[in-house]
Amino acid sequence: MEVKNYSVSFGSRQLSTNINVSFSSNKMNIIMGANGAGKSTLLDFIAGIGPEGAVGEKVGIPSYQKIAYQLQQVHFFPTLTVAQTVAFYSQLTTNQSNSKTYENAKNVRNNLLSPIWNTKMGQLSGGERQIVLTYGQCLLDKEVYIFDEPTSGVDEKNAPVVLSMINDLVINDHKIVIMTSHHSDQLKQFDLNLIAL
Ligand SMILES: Nc1ncnc2c1ncn2[C@@H]1O[C@H](COP(=O)(O)OP(=O)(O)OP(=O)(O)O)[C@@H](O)[C@H]1O
């Protein structure tokens, strides 16, 4: 999967110029760069939701229906409990029983989610919400998974658990994972394709 000659500008500001990126299918792809470097904007382009005026060639990138995209701003229904939110994600997929990641994600469900299972999403901390929504994304059956800073707000004990669940998508289910992060220290234990913007 590749993006070739990607460029985007906003008014007179040229944000990205002729960027070429190749994505690995057997390692997590980690996009790193300073605040405002254009990481989320590139993710939007890959996911097929913008930004307006961006140009570039997409090679081997599936249609948006086959892409799971967890945005940086967490979106959730505040009155649903964690259990109801997970059930909501589960209804969006069909083959969980075949997914090795789903089996491994039970670790997250049993250890991280069980204490908050009956809590409403609106009452969770920011990091807890992030964990629930990342878990939900991993339940979906897609070809490509995009996570924009999935460990933002997640503490140093839980972040490796969440990252292992995401890495399982690559290792066990042979999915393509693209992720942004500002935390290179959290990623040391994984085999990565690092992309600097
Ligand atoms: N629709 C838009 N109109 C104008 N400027 C925009 C628009 N979308 C993004 N930008 C600008 O483009 C720049 C890159 O934004 P982007 O969200 O991609 O950064 P980022 O690398 O993900 O940053 P961070 O690490 O802070 O999340 C920012 O300066 C942002 O203000």
Search tags:
197 residues, Rossmann fold, 5-stranded parallel sheet, binds adenosine-5'-triphosphate
Q: Can you walk through the features of this model?
A:
The chain is of the alpha/beta class. The chain has a single domain (2-196), classed as Rossmann fold (3-Layer(aba) Sandwich), CATH 3.40.50.300. It is built from 5 helices and 8 strands; from the N terminus they run βββαββαααβαββ. The strands form 2 sheets. The chain has a 5-stranded parallel β-sheet, sandwiched between helices. Helix 2 (82-91) runs parallel beside helix 4 (126-139), helix 3 runs antiparallel to helix 4 and helix 3 packs antiparallel against helix 5. The longest helix has 14 residues, at 100-113. 35% of the residues are buried. The mean pLDDT is 91. The structure holds adenosine-5'-triphosphate (ATP). Adenosine-5'-triphosphate (ATP) binds at residues 10, 15, 33, 35-41, 51, 72.
Query: What fraction, in percent, of the residue positions are helical?
Result: 25-40%
Structural class: alpha/beta
Rg calc = 17 Å
On the 0-100 scale, what is the average pLDDT? 91
**In CATH, what is the homologous superfamily?**
P-loop containing nucleotide triphosphate hydrolases
The total strand number stands at 8
Largest sheet: 5 strands, parallel
Organism: Leuconostoc falkenbergense
Pfam family, one: ABC_tran
Family: Belongs to the ABC transporter superfamily.
Protein name: ATP-binding cassette domain-containing protein
Question: Care to give the gist of this entry?
Answer:
With 197 residues, the protein is of the alpha/beta class. It is built from five helices and eight strands; from the N terminus they run βββαββαααβαββ. Helix content is 30%, strand content 24%.
